[in-house]
Amino acid sequence: MNSFVHLHNHSEYSLLDGMSNLEKMVSRVKSNNQPAIAITDHGNMYGAVEFYKLSKKYDIKPIIGLEAYCAIDDSLKKNNDEKSPYHLTLLSENETGYQNLMKMVTHANLNGFYYKPRIDKKILEQYNEGIIVLSGCPSSELSRSIVSNDDEKIKNTYGWFSDVFKDRFYLEIMDHIGVPNQKTINQKLLEISENNNLPLVITNDNHYVEKQDHLAHELLMCLQTNSNINDPNRFKFDDDNYYIKSSEEMWEQWKELPSGLNNTLEISERCNIKLDFTKALLPKYDCPDNKSSMEYLRELSYKGFSKRFNENDPELIERLDYELEVIEKSKFPDYFLVCWDIFNFVNSKNILSAVRGSAAASLVLYCLEVTKINPMEHNLVFERFLNLERREMPDIDMDFEDDKRNEVMKYCVERYGKDHIAQIITFGTMGAKAAVRDVTRVLDLPISVGDKLAGIIPTKPGTKIKDALEIDDFKSLMNDSDNRKVVDFAQKLEGTVRHASTHAAGVVISQEDLTNDVPLQISTSGEENAPPTTQYAMAAIADVGLLKMDFLGLTNLSIISKTIELIEKRTGKDFNIYEISKTDEKTFELLSKGDTFGVFQLESAGMRKYIKDLKPSSISDIAAMIALYRPGPMEHIDRFIRSKYGKEKIKYPHDALKDILSETYGIIVYQDQVLKIAQAFGGYTLGEADILRKAMGKKIKEVMQAEKDRFISGSLSKGFDEKTSNEVFELIEPFAGYAFNKAHSVSYAMIAYWTAYFKANYKIEYFTALLNSSINNTDKISVCVSEIRKTELEIIKPNINNSNVYFSILSTEKGKIIGYGLSSLKNVSAASLSKIIDERKKSGPFESLGDFCKRIDSSWINKKILESLIKSGSFDDFGERGGLLDSVERILIQINSLTKLRNSNQSTMFDLFGDEVETPVNVIEIAETATQDNEKMHWEQEVMGISFTENPNHKKMLRIKEINEEIIVSLQQIDFIDINKPQTLIAEVKSYEKRVSRKGAEFMIVKLELTDGPIDLMVWQNKISEVDIWLHSPIAKIKGKINNRNGENSIWYDSGEIFSFEDQSNINNNLTNKTPIITKEEYKPNMKNEKTPIEEITDENINAVKEVIITVDSEKHSSNKHIMDDLTRILLDNEGNIPVSIIVKSSSEKVKLNLPFANVNTSKSLEEKLDTIIGLQNVFYKQ
Fold first, then answer.
1. Could you say which of 33, 99, 570, 968 is the most buried, measured as most Cβ atoms within 10 Å of its Cβ?
2. Rounded to an integer, what distance in angstroms lies between the CA atom of residue 295 and that of residue 333?
3. CATH class name, domain 951-1081
């Protein structure tokens, strides 16, 4: 039977263009009885290694290639002529060709990238050895020459390829409906072949695996081009034949051209590549005095041992020698020397570091000062890190201060060479929720369809759409044809590779030029001068034998480092973090109170609860809690805590396990304990036990049965009975899957302890560093400021004359306080602010607005920066905020004029008087009208996310608490109430968000603000219709129950209403003798020109409107239940700068609602819409 090999195939790594999953692609070829297949993705080799391994798995010959982009002229040129490069199909004939492909791809990405990664003919000629070339698709140079009917160019093109590649050049023919000039191209290619004796080869330019995938592929193309299926102008393939056809289909289609079909087999026979996955391509460390790597490692280890330990303890020396022996037999001394070299640099620069994972179990690394944890002190198992039974490259995952990671990278590039170091790529795939939402969009269906479906899909990582189809509520939605359509297509796209990015930590270092083993591309990190990125992901990097390391930037290490800088600045003394007491009372007291905001790993609400219950007394306690606080082990936390305090008797499955489990009160917490139990019971070596642990984690039935038999046999030979042996095996089996790496826990527990130590002992320095770590995140700053306000510390509002670029510690008569960091303000950059602050430090405080205008340069400031500074209160010394904001344009004109004058080198007549007379500055008159506190608060919230102006509502809410203590107005009250009883709260309404539950039910989360912080109000589906009446009011009275989940409080809504401070009956009907919370006058609108209001907007008075006031009569307008929603929608649709207030009036009261979220622009259109909803007689324009 005639056969065929597909030589032009796009996998999902032709991002958002190809849709072929690699395994499905290879499996399809196997089922077609085709002997081989090629991978030819657009301009990259992302999938090459994975494709090779899968092909071998299915006993299919892999042909590694790519569809290259070739520059029109020169790949180094970047101009309009080079925007549409030619396409060319390249296949590696052998290992040399494979390496040359990697060289070409690297050049294309690092040097030739212009819209696409491009090579050119010089590069092709330089790296032509071992490469088979197919002339390419209709976008190739030869095809375009044919279409342009340029005979000379046609001849030169095939002539050049024939001369360079000789018998490795083939004319590529394909046929698809709708491709312009396809028949013309094919006819000419046949003619060229016949006249020049050039071989033809037939391809199908496959983009998906099965014929029925073509519609899903169309949707994928819509995602790529940001269009939808109903867009008549969208890019699409015009036929459904871009799939992996059987040999019979290809022969039927091309039976008139048998040579072109047979040549696919000929090329397949020529392509023979073998990738070696047994190599260890470690960098060779250049040792001094011609010492071997092992000799030098041993020397450094013993030198470090003498420094770390004052005694030659035989047990320590035995452990050190054992580790060195394992390292030598594993042939990893150079790996350890490279790590030592990196940390030697890090330590010399005082960069804080830590080592994650099992590496902290190595005494050698502790002696080399790579790790900071003594593994013997914590009884850490070296075999969990490295053992002779498990011959794998060890992982040394490194944490550095996040703002110093680039410094470490730069050192490595300089030390090992730019051709020997790269960051590692990672690929993002389409998850279940994203696939559902994306398919909904490209099918041009309402967004709500996708939201409802995605809302039911569980958020658990790895959840598939097929899992959601087991949920009844999701299944019931399949009765709707649109829902069914979305889900069917989403399942086809689910898991497809969507984008490539740079791994947050992965780094690879090599001895030889990296491009001998991996193709490279420009880093996607966006960091300046960043090393390139590999085109192979983590698994493939390990397969080809390259040394992978993790360099992770850890914010908490930066916070600690900045804290130490501030301590040293204040004390004038060096501070050594490694000398702090590990039993500090204040630290453990802070942890026992659950005061863990800002404490590494311990600040989540659930963790705060457990830490408070545990009251840790050692770093081991912290390590255990870090290990236990995860799905699975969490169920043992309560038992752990009870056992610690003797409230529950500690039980051991067997007395032989007591020594192993005593530190964790009889509970298996760590993987190390699983290893030791296997050793003690089953007779395993610790290395063998680590292999058992991995097998248990993978849960492979046949492997598990074999291991169980061995474990039981070993236990019996050690004198344990069969019943006990079975019980112990069944005990450790589930724990092996989720028990934690103890070395990792201890390492992170140490960082957690450090952060708690500094918070407890150096509070102002720590909080200042903490604020600066979130300088561009107003949400985090807001939470941090709220936490500061709970302490004795003081943080002051921004001021141009005492604030700095970053948060800083200021000295005052009252003592040390925290000054606000101006670069954290919205629209304000550190670069512009630093120049203004430098000027202030150089020449003294700005004495007035005029002085400020005179001394700064117009390039340092713009309208947005100035407005943010004013709104934050930074210019309060210069006038009222409202007046300053009205004068922004004039202030900027003044600054610009004075800057031009300074830069013109022209003298004014005042210069003739020398320094005695200054150049006069035009006085900018600022209106002195007092700015209302509510307005100040709104502006502060806008630019800072918090407010320093005292909230008048909070003052009134606290007065309510004095009148009726049962009404909740603060978070603090919640800690002392019975959460099982219904409660009444009075709170500010900040925002709300509608969501869909996993069961498809709509619910709402309303953000409420109490006097000391925010709390979420959960409104379930059966109550949503009730909230309209109060949802848009500033203050609401809410009834509901407090719900505590994992230590986080929320309110479950029962009922609510608008709250009026002037109506005391809202609080208690028997308060006639009490002082009013607020008088009626406090809610009387403050209107200028009340006698001559603007009755109608005209061209003449439109700019005079300063506020729009709308009156809603609760009785007259009661027929429209959604009047507040309707008004809000109209106001938001007419967004502008004029404030809006709504007065809600009834027969007994009148309440004014300020709407800071709904400033408007006045217009006739707005007038008409308001007239329709409320009537113009209820609209007042305040001048």
1. 968
2. 9
3. mainly beta
Distances (CA, A) of 549 to 335, 338, 518: 10, 11, 16
- The alpha carbon of 598 is separated from its chain's Cα centroid by a whole number of angstroms, namely 19
Query: Would you mind telling me the total number of residues written for the chain in this entry?
Result: 1183
Read off φ and ψ for residue 1140, nearest 5 degrees.
Answer: -125, 140
Among 351, 342, 378, 338, CA closest to 362: 378
Q: What is the pLDDT of residues 903-912, one digit of tens each?
A: 876 544 344 4
Confidence at residue 955, expressed as pLDDT on a 0 to 100 scale: 81
**Residue of 1148 and 1167 predicted with greater confidence:** 1167
Radius of gyration of the chain (CA): 36
Q: How far is it between the farthest Cα atoms of the chain?
A: 112
pLDDT at 1070 over 50: no
Structure tokens that stand for 305 in this block: 């041992």
**pLDDT tens, position by position, 1083-1122:** 333 333 333 344 455 555 556 677 888 888 766 666 665 6
Distance CA 961, CA 970 (A): 9
3-state secondary structure of 20: strand
What six digits make up the tokens of 632? 């699975």
Residues 515 and 734: their CA atoms lie apart, in Å, by 43
Q: Which residue's structure tokens are 């030390």? A: 415
Q: Same CATH fold, 774-936 and 22-209+244-270?
A: no
Cα–Cα distance, 616 to 641 (Å, whole number): 10
Span 515-541, pLDDT tens digits = 999 999 998 877 777 899 999 999 999
- Segment 48-81, tens digit of pLDDT: 999 999 999 999 999 999 999 999 999 998 988 8
Name the CATH topology of 428-501: Arc Repressor Mutant, subunit A (1.10.10)
Of 276, 270, 274, 243, which Cα lies nearest the Cα of 35?
Answer: 270
Amino acid at 758: F
Q: Look-up: residue for tokens 């795939």?
A: 429
Which residue blocks in 887-932 are alpha helix, DSSP H? 888-903
Domain made up of 288-423+503-556: CATH architecture? 2-Layer Sandwich (3.30)
d(CA 202, CA 222): 28
Mean pLDDT over residues 976-995, rounded? 85
Distance CA 93, CA 38 (A): 11
Average pLDDT in the chain: 88
Q: 22-209+244-270, which class in CATH?
A: alpha beta
**Ranges 89-93, 1006-1010, 1174-1178: which has the least confidence:** 1174-1178
SS3 531: coil
Among the listed residues 777, 787, 833, 779, the one whose alpha carbon sits nearest the alpha carbon of residue 806: 833
pTM (2 decimals)?
A: 0.81
What SS3 class is residue 1161?
coil
- CA–CA gap between residue 100 and residue 134 (Å, rounded): 16
Rounded to the nearest 5°, which phi and psi values hold at 1146?
-130, -175
d(CA 507, CA 551): 7
Q: What number of H helices and E strands is found in the chain?
A: 45, 30
Q: Between the CA of residue 848 and those of 577, 796, 821, 855, what are the distances in Å?
A: 45, 21, 21, 11
Distance CA 513, CA 1054 (A): 68
Q: What is the 3-state secondary structure (H, E, C) of 403-450?
A: CCHHHHHHHHHHHHCCCCEEEEEEEEECCHHHHHHHHHHHCCCCHHHH
Q: Give the architecture (CATH level 2) of 774-936.
A: Orthogonal Bundle (1.10)
List the domain boundaries for the chain. Answer: 22-209+244-270, 288-423+503-556, 428-501, 574-603+616-756, 774-936, 951-1081, 1084-1182
Enter the tokens of residue 440. Answer: 């909904």
Separation of alpha carbons 53 and 62, rounded Å: 9
Beta strand 169-173 pairing with 200-202: parallel
- pLDDT tens digits for range 881-938: 999 999 999 999 989 988 888 887 654 434 444 444 444 455 677 877 788 888 898 8
Instruction: Kindly state the helix (H) or strand (E) to which residue 1056 belongs, with its residue range.
Output: strand 1048-1058
